Amino acid sequence: MWSNLSKFTPLFVFLALSGLIFLLRNINTLEKFNCKTASALYHFQNSINIAFRPLGPVDSNHSYCGYPALDLTPEEVVEEQYLLDFVAWPETSLQGVSFRQSSDPAHSFFVILGSDGDFRVGEQLEVLVHMHDFQGQPKQHGGDFLLARVHSPELKAGSAGKVVDHQNGFYSVFFALLWPGEVRVSVTLVHSSEAVQVLKRLREEHPDRVYFKSLFRSGYFTETTQCNLCLSAHEPLCNFTDPHTGEPWFCYKPKLLSCDTRVDHAKGGYQKRLISSREGLLFQSDINIKIPLLASGTDRVTVKPQESKDKWELERNANSDVIKFTPSGFYYQDVWKSTARLVVRQFNDTSITQCLHGKVVYLFGDSTVRQWFEYLNDVVPDLKEFHLGSPKKVGPFLAVDSVHNIMLKYRCHGPPIRFSTVAANELRYVANELEGIVGGKDVVVAITIWSHFSTFPVEVYIRRLRNIRRAVLRLLDRSPGTLVVLKTANVQELTPEVSLYNSDWFSLQLDSVLRSMFRGLDVVLVDAWEMTLAHYLPHALHPPPIIIKNQIDVFLSHICHDRRS
After folding, report:
1. Cα 215 from Cα 144, distance rounded (Å)
2. Could you tell me if 335 and 306 lie in one domain?
3. Cα dihedral: 225, 227, 230, 233 (round 10)
4. Structural domain includes residue 266
5. Peptide bond into 396 cis (omega under 30)
6. What pTM value is reported for the model?
7. Over the Cα atoms of the chain, what is R_g?
8. Cβ distance 342 to 558 under 8 Å?
């Protein structure tokens, strides 16, 4: 008898498993079960999920996915190629190059040209940089990533310089001399040319080196799967491409739940072991990441007051080469002064309230523009934040001053966003949010979007900005009085690990694309890049309060340039 029954064992096992799968796939009915039953099945399901797929990075080498080239117009194809050429970096072969042949800031130096001359405010200072490797040999090619500034510590003054790569180991750096006194020159090697080539490869081959996750829930059951712009198509995907902008986003389909049960979005983690030990030598703190170069000779000049402003203006107009570079502004006594026509006012709590009286201010983007919301919310006395149940540091946030009719709103941009956890129904693309704004002379929109795109190919960022630009133009067309402000990227502290995901080199590329795509449009720029580079405080992803205050002063000066405090 038992031998006869044993023949049916496979059938019994099949029927049992079929019943279990049917039960799990119809989980909505489980809400009718008692808590003990649901809890038991919940733990059983979790064990199945863990067995099916561990959450981790995708093991693939794809370069660019999610954006079909066929949906670009001929004009967009031309623009994209122009932008890619615009930010192209000199190629440097790593084949056969040892660490000792890479750029060494300790052996490299800069020389101030004409340092024994007579410098005056309004003139240009030129510096020549010569790069050498760790063997002390002069470099024969370019591609190093340098940052530079002039500064006067006792005056709390500083401004950024412009670096020109001659692609032969020599670099020229140009500065505008904008205040009198002793002015010092600082030139910093951020990354060697060899390190930049590693960063370029990572951006193209590992766009998923920061990976994301989403929680799916129905009743008592949850599943967590990996999400990204680029995922392997070998497994079923949930397609969360935005229907209005066409911005793609995907998650692996849960084993038991449907795609429409997604409840949140969060950063999953960072891929490790992305580079070889040989490449790792190119990213060493205190060795070759953000290391100042020494001067050959003096590192400072004395700048005398300007003799005649009218004379200088005539000379500048007569010869455009007199000033090769004019920064957007400079610090003096820790106060940012614009080199453009804008008069930057200093705002306190009272004058901020007067400036924003009757205004609606929208802040869209990442955590660096959230700092603006936090600053204004802290400084303006009658501005009260409404707690909407949003997670701290995530939002959305809303603050209202009902006495002076001020409304301040912040919302983060759509994926990729590396915040801890964002509810799925709060994931909004900036372009879509702009479409819902009526606009007008009492409406201000500020946008910052850069840091979370550093791991993706530049085409991804171009596509996002193109959608935002379309929405901005439509907003300005229907409401010409609307003020649209773009805040640029900023420099930050770099460690070996941070360099692989958020290097200033990635940020510079994105910042250049942003400026190019919005040049000539009726928008204003808050140059956070120069404002962080020119300041004496250490670089930080989230700049310190004094820099945020200066950014806010520039922002408010654009809003209230025709008012008096």
Report:
1. 42
2. no
3. 30
4. no
5. yes
6. 0.86
7. 28
8. yes
